[in-house]
Q: What sequence folds into this?
């Protein structure tokens, strides 16, 4: 694939509410885009808590490890470690599988979970679920369309 293990970094301890965009922001000093980062998913489509990034050079990857190791996303310390390209490729496949199975649902699920971090946001979600006749409140158990309808219904916050 032309990539070398020195270019690959594993990010461990990622919050389960993390999105690809959150990773891009965290790694913003290095100018990576969505083609260079991936979250890692379990078979059922849930996040593992790991993510991977590919840097233009091994030196840039090492600089990211030196500068960002133990920095926070949300309230979680993120560990940055060297890793192998095959780990990145496996995570990419897991993300593809999650998207095939769930469409945009993982990102939408994470957006709803972020809204639920406030009492008011949680109440809006519960009310929306109840109004639709749902008794399950875990966003991961709902369709992409339902999650999008909820997000459309509440506008842009704050919550």
A:
């Amino acid at each position: 694939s032309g990539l070398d293990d020195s270019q690959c970094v594993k990010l461990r301890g990622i919050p389960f509410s993390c999105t690809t965009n959150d990773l891009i922001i965290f790694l913003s000093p290095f100018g990576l885009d969505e083609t260079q980062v991936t979250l890692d998913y379990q078979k059922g489509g849930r996040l593992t808590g790991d993510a991977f990034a590919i840097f233009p050079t091994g030196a840039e990857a090492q600089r990211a490890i030196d500068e960002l190791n133990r920095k926070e996303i949300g309230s979680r310390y993120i560990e940055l470690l060297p890793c192998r390209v095959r780990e990145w490729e496996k995570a990419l496949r897991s993300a593809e599988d999650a998207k095939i199975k769930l469409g945009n649902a993982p990102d939408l699920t994470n957006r709803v979970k972020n809204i639920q971090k406030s009492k008011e946001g949680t109440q809006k979600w519960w009310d929306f679920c109840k109004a639709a006749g749902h008794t399950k409140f875990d966003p991961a158990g709902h369709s992409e369309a339902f999650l999008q309808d909820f997000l459309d219904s509440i506008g842009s916050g704050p919550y």
